[in-house]
Here is the input.
Amino acid sequence: MTETSQRPGRLKARPLPYDTFRENVAMLVRDNAVLRPERLAGAHRLEIKARGVTLLASPMIADAGAALAPDEIGLPQPAFRRLRIAPGDLVEIAPARPPKSLDAVRAKIRGETLSADQLADVVDDFANHRCSDMEIAAFLIACASFMTADETLDLTRAMVGQGARLAWEGRRVVDKHCIGGIPGNRTSMIVTPIVAAHGLTIPKTSSRAITSPAGTADTMEVLARVDLSEDEMRAVVERCDGCIVWGGRMNLSPADDVMISVERPLGVDTPEQMVASILSKKLSAGSSHLIIDVPVGASAKVRDAPSALRLRKLFEFVALRTGLAIDVVTTDGSRPIGRGVGPLLETRDVLAVLERQPDAPRDLADKAAMLAGRLLETDPDVAGGRGADLARELIASGAARRKLDEIIDAQGPSPIRAELGGLTHEVLASRPGRIAAIDCLRIARVARLAGAPTDTGAGLQLLKSVGDDVRAGDPIYRIHGEEPSEFGFAVEAAQAESGFAVAD
Amino acid sequence: MTETSQRPGRLKARPLPYDTFRENVAMLVRDNAVLRPERLAGAHRLEIKARGVTLLASPMIADAGAALAPDEIGLPQPAFRRLRIAPGDLVEIAPARPPKSLDAVRAKIRGETLSADQLADVVDDFANHRCSDMEIAAFLIACASFMTADETLDLTRAMVGQGARLAWEGRRVVDKHCIGGIPGNRTSMIVTPIVAAHGLTIPKTSSRAITSPAGTADTMEVLARVDLSEDEMRAVVERCDGCIVWGGRMNLSPADDVMISVERPLGVDTPEQMVASILSKKLSAGSSHLIIDVPVGASAKVRDAPSALRLRKLFEFVALRTGLAIDVVTTDGSRPIGRGVGPLLETRDVLAVLERQPDAPRDLADKAAMLAGRLLETDPDVAGGRGADLARELIASGAARRKLDEIIDAQGPSPIRAELGGLTHEVLASRPGRIAAIDCLRIARVARLAGAPTDTGAGLQLLKSVGDDVRAGDPIYRIHGEEPSEFGFAVEAAQAESGFAVAD
Here is the structure.
């Protein structure tokens, strides 16, 4: 047990011009006026208080040569915002007491089932940045070892309890979400305008890529501004019935944002955490009807039908008890969808489908129509089984394309100027035969190496798909890059292992 | 998956005058010559290479006003030492690839049993600071969920494989270790001189307190210098047959040091991790015979006999297969041992026993004689059952006291000037009756609040023990402090809950 073994003292806050990506840091000089550095050896963390707000930070002790006085504490910008202080304001500091929820984290480590109150404490501490990455990882891994459906439900509710919650008076709000993992699977940008064109409300918030070559927010950003505030988003939805914006500014599930920042680097992706993460954000966004796309395939997140079934049941268990109508659809996750991989290339696929261009990728068009159709059927006036046809009609009439333009107009112009990466390399089939399988993980990796999504015009153009016949030397995909060194890495990786398996 | 998506580049290393306690940090300016900061958003870590050594660091991006040039990277002192570079030397930097062992960590999270090779990879990455706290916590919690005896053995071996390993040619080396948790249990400082006085070799390396009010290294430091180098320790042992030094400079199990820095704040203390931690250090120290003190009690680390038995079997399983003769002794962990709690107060108890002062604490004397006796019986010339008596004779003759003086002389004078804390407060019995129980955790906490071990003269003097009759208002212990504010916290905590239970 760590304890506060020093009286709280006050120091003047001074801005540090540093960005540390994740945890807060606080800088003190060794001979500061309040705290002997050795006091921190056990706790490792510092509690900083101002105006009733408490923040934990990792201390850095400055030895000499730091431009900091003994009565000052250096804090990066986010700490000033979170504490609502200005430079020169006094903050109280003390060695950190363990966060209240640490007992619950330890109980979970011991294999206990946590109560709703315990989970609420954990989520509260996570959302308010009172836990270290180490403590968050400990909780997540203990949960990965076992977590009941009731715990998943309580965790979801606790996560909704934190952060903003959007209300849409008088509107029935539909939404869609894909659990991810399939390159090019950019259906949201087609489904949203179709559904909105029909008159349903679909305020789509999406994420940026963390480990994939493009998130829907990255792709939409090729066409329009996506970092809207809540008020700006509401105005777009009032006008267009739909939007496609980045969820990052909405603060819909701050605890989830914190947990994701630890889950991703550890590669933890359990059904329980996936369900709590997705449903907490959708509940906070005010959705009432939700369709979930679960691609199943050898290189997808869900590998087989029994796992997909288990995941579906858990989604349904939590959704039912939180008043969310849910439709979990299992889809083909054995290969990429569409032809482009990377923000600009995927945008081209989306527009090709909406504009019924002759070379529009049929798999993307069919999947988007199916998903949109199931959402359209939540409208009592749409007959069962009519949804997909209606979706196709909304594309054919140009209504969906016009709706996308309306949304783009309402969201405002894109801040980026996207151009297809001028460096290109064609990856060739090494032998004749038929394409037997495409490894989604490998394709995503090559596209990321090429620079996607940071370089908007980087990525892959797929030229062949599963079932196509090839001769040795036929191009199977084209790599586009903007930066020579990164482009080189991508070419090298594709040469080592293209991700395409050719069989006789 | 994270990947290197930028060519490696070189920057000039510049010392940062910061101490960050744990993880390495590296500072770059936003417009540095090599790496766009957004490249780090996924990886969160930076790989720094020089002369074949690779180090991972958490990046800090300096925005403006930092005294760092675009072709420089700021690194704290430990990074210079680990990379064996001087200021101005060029280092290569790139976004970190996931450490090789992360796949093994993920396999353990999924509930798999790890092979010896996988565990060796994990330990190698831990010892070489290639993993973040988050990754270390994930591994430890996954192991806490289940770990086989074979995995514990392989983990122990892998930990011994890292770091220094001491060899004692021609000497049979005995050692003792207590798993901890009992205030005042300072037997090592009595056992070591007894055993050395008999002529056995006992190079005792001990730890400083992390969460307790005193480690053996803190207590010995009241009498002598303890931060010896390996060569200095060898010289002491050559001369005296024994020593009592701080193990921190020996680098005996660097992976263990890293793991402990994560286990302690999380309060993780599984039998498997305890066994691997203790035995790896003892094997690295070159011990051949080891006695382990396992106190069992309601507020001790081991709560009941079945848990103690399970722990003993695991110690024996690993010791047998690593060639270490082990004797696991279950002792009374229901109350503190001796009267003093805190470095100086515990030193007084130790000297009282060795000098046979009339008021020397009998429980400490008896326990030390028992433990020393069992080690003495590893000498073929000492008859079975004679050990404890021989230990008492070595005290009675003054031989053990003289041996302690020899060791103190050889280690050198203490760098600290210890004086009993002048602030005192007597904690009184609130009701008449008999002392029924003493809560070791509470006693440790009050002593730490009073300032121990940082303030050498702070701590508690216990005036009553279990079984003693008290009247209301009788003093049960005295708090000593040096710093008024901390002393106040300790008094407050003792008043809220003294840790002594009085029954009729």
